[in-house]
Amino acid sequence: MPVFYKDIAACPNCGNEFPYTKVMSDAVKIKSRDLDLKPEYAEVNPLLYSVLTCPFCKFTYNESDKTTLKQTISPKQFEQINKYLGIITDDDISDLNNSENKSEEFYAKQIIMASEIYATLKKPFAVARLFLKLSWHFREKGEEDKELKMLAEILTICEKYFEKAVTDEDTIFCLFYTGYAYFRFGDKLKANSAFDKLIRGFGKSRSPYIIAAKDIRSDLK
Ligand SMILES: [Zn+2]
């Protein structure tokens, strides 16, 4: 059964088209999940292919935004982004790759570049979700210091922008990862407080975050 297939993206920044690899949805199999819902994939890890880098201008973004991102970028933001892309040298990203042979190291670089761009676009929850992927990357590599550093960044964003979350999805994300970050940092009181708020507000929803929050909370008591 084929695992990958090719697709074409038009860069939201420079407009050039480039090929990239996608994972067949049938090939994605989740074996298990960690406490924070990090998926453990049976074979291929689709997250590795969820970020694209334009080989012409280095613009880096979520594949899921490929047709919608351009419309959300103002002329001023294009200018700021291109200033940032201008300081990235070819040497910095000599391993640029959007194919099935992409390295995990390049994936980590892509997340950093994409997070700079989404921060410029004032999309803090997209940045937090990218940082979450990076924290998972570090967990897989057993680099706990770096993983916790990313969790601290996620916590900062969630606490700073919580009031600005307009969708339930972002509110649930913020409360869950605030609780999870405090849980990992050993602050039971603040972890419980965030999980309680999440369960009080969204306890009736069937969100997997609610179930995970209840699981962690029962460990905390
Ligand atoms: Zn481009």
**What is the residue-averaged pLDDT?**
96
Count of spatially separate domains: 2
Order of helices and strands: EEEEEEHHHHHHH
User: Which runs of at least 5 residues are low in confidence (pLDDT < 50)?
Assistant: none
Instruction: Provide the gyration radius in Å.
Output: 18 Å
Total number of strands: 6
- Strand line-up of the largest beta sheet: 1-2
- Helix tally equals 7
Which band does the percent of strand residues land in?
Answer: 5-15%
Ions, cofactors and other bound molecules: zinc ion
Q: What does this protein look like?
A:
With 221 residues, the chain is of the alpha+beta class. The chain has 2 domains: 1-120, no CATH class; 123-221, Tetratricopeptide repeat domain (Serine Threonine Protein Phosphatase 5, Tetratricopeptide repeat, Alpha Horseshoe). 49% of the residues lie in helices and 12% in strands. It is built from 7 helices and 6 strands; from the N terminus they run ββββββααααααα. The chain has helices at 75-86, 104-120, 124-140, 144-161, 168-184, 188-202, 208-220, and strands spanning 4-10, 17-23, 30-33, 39-41, 51-53, 60-62. Strand 1 and strand 2 form a beta hairpin. The radius of gyration is 18 Å and the shape is globular. Residues 11, 13-14, 16, 54, 56-57, 59 line the site of zinc ion.
Provide the fold topology.
Layout: E1 4-10, E2 17-23, E3 30-33, E4 39-41, E5 51-53, E6 60-62, H1 75-86, H2 104-120, H3 124-140, H4 144-161, H5 168-184, H6 188-202, H7 208-220
Antiparallel strand pairs: 1-2, 3-4, 5-6
Helix pairs in contact: 2-3, 3-4, 4-5, 5-6, 5-7, 6-7
This protein binds zinc ion.
